[in-house]
Amino acid sequence: MQIQVTVNGKTRKSEVEDRTLLVHYLRDQLHLTGTHVGCDTSSCGACTVHVDGVAVKSCTLLAAQADGCAVTTIEGMAIQDSPTTSQLHPLQEGFKECHGLQCGFCTPGMIMTAADLLKHNPNPSEAEIREALEGNICRCTGYHNIVKAIQWAATHSTKPEPNQQEEPVVADEHLFTNDVTTGEVVETH
Amino acid sequence: MKPFQYLRPTGVDAAVRDLTAQPDAAKFIAGGTNLIDLMKEHVEQPTTLVDINRLPLATVEELEDGGLRLGALVTNADTAYHPLVEQRYPLLSKAILAGASAQLRNMATNGGNLFQRTRCYYFYDTSMPCNKRHSGPSQGPAGCGALHGYNRIHAILGTESADGNVHCIATHPSDMCVALAALEAVVRVSGPQGERTIPIADFHRLPGDTPQHDNTLRPGELVTAIDLPANGFSHYNSYLKLRDRASYAFALVSVAAALELERSDASGDQISAARLAMGGVAHKPWRKTEAEALLVGQRPTPDVFGRAADALLDGAQGYGHNTFKIELAKRAIVRALSQAAKLEPTE
């Protein structure tokens, strides 16, 4: 079937199998490999992305269910400050500043979940952060520095959320995400 | 995941027609948070998925009788945080937020929550015998792996069939449904024969000798909404969930307790109405009006709560690893009622 999904500000029109999971569409067809597959059974949270602004687990969602939706992945979190450069999102800065990752496998999902939390609750308590992360599993850190990283982001969050911006966001020199976004519909096979 | 045909109707009648066309092979999908996992594990193998997400069932409406109608496609998160639910049905908010994780609650719907399947490990493992999963050789052997296996999370109530045999000791996994049982919610469905309503107590069923059926829906029927009665017991309620770890686990035992208290005389309050439902202990949310009747007219004391607990757990039977649940459930009921009556704090 054909789907049209706006991923990190760019509208994609793609042909997918009916049974394609959103995470496989993002990783295998769009080559946005920042979204990870951990458990593949909606437990670990490594695959968390935003669909229409809310955090969901993309390993338990058909790409077909996201047809017509706006998807933000970790690659879309950095904030473009010129046509060729971008700044890390405060959460990305926070994880860097507070040593919020070790192996880094869970980090994209942690950041996407935390971004959803901070949107609803800009100044969460430690307990609220820990509760919000109940669907994200980290095998390395013991979570302490992840909590600190999110607290850091909460106190350094002066920048607008990417999906509230007029301008689409560009993250890094990734094959797809560094394309200048023109608003055109891109066919991806 | 096995290939399937994907349909996306935009109206309730069309969705019902799509499903009725092949009642054994087609499934509705809404959030899909449980169904897709089951399809990956080959526990569910629908040949057609009818995606109902485009149906106009995503609103919360106030009813003339003072109740609230929760659309089947409103997400669990939007329901739990809805101002009217928080204000008038805090028990429901608490139960929803005790379950799953933020990402799943963002995707899972109210209708879909009713159709969550058990998290029995033997049900998920297609190499193990399971009467609930079994409908043909492609879905593994018949029998019950849990009955003489590892059954720590399994049922202690309502497991025997009419002939005295036990075919399945799976539990219903939902937290939301336990609160719905306590609140006496009504499920609205639309099907090939038109619309009808089903009290939540009659929606899910005990396993008997046909544990493959979780509920009493007829083929092709679609849940369109859940109605909450006007009385939400918003002043005195508690949802207590006990599990093996503090977050992101299914309940070993959960209790939805709701009370109305009246000042009877200078010496204290008297219970004028009570609701009590349990999760994690049976094939459906477990409620007995006899247990609630023991509370009405009494003062809210641990002794009174203990008598209600004994009545609700009457006939409970353990299967080895889960026998501890009987005592755990008694204490959980007393504690939940004490919390609801504000005799002890909730964490």
Automatic annotation (TrEMBL), chain A:
GO terms for molecular function: 2 iron, 2 sulfur cluster binding; metal ion binding; oxidoreductase activity. It holds the Pfam family Fer2_2. PROSITE patterns: 2FE2S_FER_2. Residues 1-77 form the 2Fe-2S ferredoxin-type domain. InterPro entries: 2Fe-2S-bd, 2Fe-2S-bd_dom_sf, 2Fe-2S_ferredoxin-like_sf, 2Fe-2S_ferredoxin-type, Beta-grasp_dom_sf, Diverse_Oxidoreductases. Keywords: 2Fe-2S, Iron, Iron-sulfur, Metal-binding, Oxidoreductase. This is 2Fe-2S iron-sulfur cluster binding domain-containing protein. The lineage of its organism: Bacteria, Pseudomonadati, Bacteroidota, Cytophagia, Cytophagales.
UniProtKB/TrEMBL annotation, chain B:
SMART domains: CO_deh_flav_C. Coiled coil: none annotated. Pfam families: CO_deh_flav_C, FAD_binding_5. The keyword Ubl conjugation does not apply. GO terms for molecular function: FAD binding; oxidoreductase activity. Residues 1-233 form the FAD-binding PCMH-type domain. InterPro entries: CO_DH_flav_C, CO_DH_flav_C_dom_sf, Diverse_Substr_Oxidored, FAD-bd_PCMH, FAD-bd_PCMH-like_sf, FAD-bd_PCMH_sub1, FAD-bd_PCMH_sub2, Mopterin_DH_FAD-bd. Keywords: FAD, Flavoprotein. Gene3D superfamilies: 3.30.465.10, CO dehydrogenase flavoprotein, C-terminal domain (3.30.390.50), Uridine Diphospho-n-acetylenolpyruvylglucosamine Reductase, domain 2 (3.30.43.10). This is Xanthine dehydrogenase family protein subunit M.
